[in-house]
UniProtKB/TrEMBL annotation:
<protein>
    <recommendedName>
        <fullName>DUF1570 domain-containing protein</fullName>
    </recommendedName>
</protein>
<feature type="domain" description="DUF1570">
    <location>
        <begin position="333"/>
        <end position="439"/>
    </location>
</feature>
<feature type="compositionally biased region" description="Pro residues">
    <location>
        <begin position="493"/>
        <end position="506"/>
    </location>
</feature>
<feature type="signal peptide">
    <location>
        <begin position="1"/>
        <end position="29"/>
    </location>
</feature>
<dbReference type="Pfam" id="PF07607">
    <property type="entry name" value="DUF1570"/>
</dbReference>
<feature type="region of interest" description="Disordered">
    <location>
        <begin position="485"/>
        <end position="506"/>
    </location>
</feature>
<dbReference type="InterPro" id="IPR011464">
    <property type="entry name" value="DUF1570"/>
</dbReference>
<keyword id="KW-0732">Signal</keyword>
């Protein structure tokens, strides 16, 4: 296995050597901190006083004064062509490191041509050969499964849309169904390339995988109850092993989002009435303005237009944050459940109890991160679960997690945050041990196979990471203590804080 840290270092040195050139590429910004609260990571363009943020539903325009801080340089789509081109003169190792960076950052599909190009240039490079072979398998056409019985069990009629590897059952608009299919296909490609690069070649099922997307939570819950799966009523998505399918629901139906939408509509109605009044004003007229959240005042036409523009942008800010919060939850859930489906159908997990539940959930959680409406890739610092981890008191002990404490009773925040955190640590900081542990879980030898599940997991973990679990626990906690998202790493300062080790922004 190629050591990723060394490869990243070589490519990073090349990037640093040309930092001045790259820094002049244009006025782009990707970390945005609103003056009135809230922050997003999304592709943005700054032109004078105008800031255009590109989101899944189009461009949203703000003023520069709406932001407390803007930081350029966190758009993987923009960075990938430069990384790829800088790595090519360095040969196989640098090119492979750039490919791995792309996969980790959600750009597996964009990296596919480079994988095949590197295979042609260096056929003997085993990790690239495995990745290219995985792409070849994924390119083979797949048949749609017979989902008639499952569709009847869902309890509501649904449309069917298909991607190369997914049959999506849904009640959404065509554009939204296409977006969900694109997300799932991207997760699938990333899943196979990640494991191929690590030396695990997985089969691609000959039939498309089934994903059902309810528009109402009530229909989702009714389906769970009909399947004697009521214990999972607190979940947003569920992999049903008997049907070999995933079900999830659209969180726009939830009260929080309904309230946000209604508040926005009310505010926009108020601002529309104000705009109409402003447009009727004579050039030198004065208008008494009284809108919610603002002190009543008498303004001239230009002043009223300026106030109106600010209030409209503040409303847009609230809508944007609410929309991105929903996408982070819904698309993160979709990616998570698709990984469960892939693990069961690719041969990664031959039997349902090969992996302890914490490992199943922790692995799936590595694929959850969505930033600015964009799937962020694999094992990124988790914008949702990292704060959950920090809230756990006292800091979790390792062995109870290995034994599955807190799992088996539906979704609970803390155990899932612990599972994400441990797999995150293992993949990034103990990658060799992570693979050996995975191999032992998949193919336990005689000394492990007869042990009770909890003992088997602990014994396998000790075999690859050593008997000193206390030391591993300390390293795990220390790693998470310095983990930060890019938005956290660059956040505008608040109160002065004591010096600490540099954080890892991923």
């Amino acid at each position: 296995m190629v050591r990723m840290a060394a490869l990243r270092g070589r490519v990073l040195r090349r990037l640093m050597a040309t930092a001045a050139i790259l820094g002049s590429a244009g006025a782009r910004a990707d970390l945005l901190y609103f003056e009135k609260g809230g922050e997003i990571q999304a592709s943005a363009k700054v032109e004078g006083d105008r800031v255009e943020i590109t989101l899944p539903d189009g461009i949203r325009e703000f003023a520069r004064a709406d932001f407390k801080k803007i930081v350029p340089g966190y758009s993987p789509e923009d960075e990938w062509p430069r990384r790829r081109d800088l790595a090519r003169p360095g040969g196989t190792q640098d090119r492979y490191a750039a490919i791995w960076w792309a996969i980790e950052n959600g750009l597996a599909i964009e990296a596919a041509p480079e994988i095949r190009s590197l295979r042609e240039a260096d056929p003997g490079h085993a990790p690239t050969a495995r990745m290219a072979a995985a792409l070849d398998r994924l390119d083979e056409p797949r048949r749609a499964p017979d989902a008639s019985a499952f569709r009847k069990a869902l309890g509501v009629s649904m449309e069917a849309s298909e991607g190369p590897h997914v049959l999506l059952l849904h009640r959404q608009a065509d554009a939204e169904a296409a977006r969900r299919l694109a997300l799932l296909e991207r997760v699938i490609t990333s899943f196979y390339l990640d494991f191929a690069g690590r030396g695990i070649e997985l089969k691609v099922p000959d039939r498309k995988l089934i994903f059902a997307w309810f528009s109402e939570q009530s229909d989702y819950l009714a389906f769970l109850r009909s399947q004697n799966a009521g214990a999972f009523a607190t979940t947003k998505g569920y992999f049903h092993p008997t049907w070999n399918a995933v079900v999830a629901y659209d969180s726009r139906c939830l009260e929080r989002h309904e309230r946000g939408k209604q508040a926005s509509e009310t505010r926009r109605g108020e601002l529309d009435r104000l705009r109409a009044a402003v447009e009727r004003m004579p050039a030198r007229g004065r208008l008494r303005v009284a809108v919610g959240g603002e002190a009543p005042r008498t303004l001239g036409r230009d002043e009223a237009r300026s106030l109106l523009g600010r209030l409209e942008r503040e409303t847009l800010r609230g809508e944007t944050l609410l929309d991105l919060d929903r996408l982070a939850m819904d698309e993160g859930t979709a990616a998570h459940e698709m990984v469960h489906l892939l693990a069961a159908n690719s041969g990664l997990q031959s039997r349902h109890d090969d992996f302890p539940i914490w490992f199943q959930e922790g692995l799936a959680a590595q694929y959850e991160v969505v930033r600015g409406g964009r799937w962020a890739g694999i094992s990124r610092a988790h914008d949702l679960r990292l704060p959950d981890w920090r809230k756990i008191q006292p800091t979790p002990a390792l062995e109870p997690l290995l034994r599955g404490r807190g799992f088996g009773r539906g979704y609970q925040r803390d155990p899932y945050a612990e599972a994400w955190a441990l797999v995150y640590f293992l993949r990034l900081e103990r990658s060799d041990a992570y693979l050996r542990f995975l191999d032992l879980l998949r193919s336990p030898d005689a000394s492990l196979a007869d042990l009770p599940p909890g003992d088997r997991t602990v014994a396998a973990f000790r075999r690859v990471l050593g008997d000193d679990l206390a030391s591993v626990e300390r390293d795990w906690h220390a790693f998470l203590a310095t983990a930060q998202t890019p938005l956290e790493h660059h956040a505008p300062p608040t109160d002065p804080a004591p010096a600490s080790p540099p954080p890892r922004a991923r």
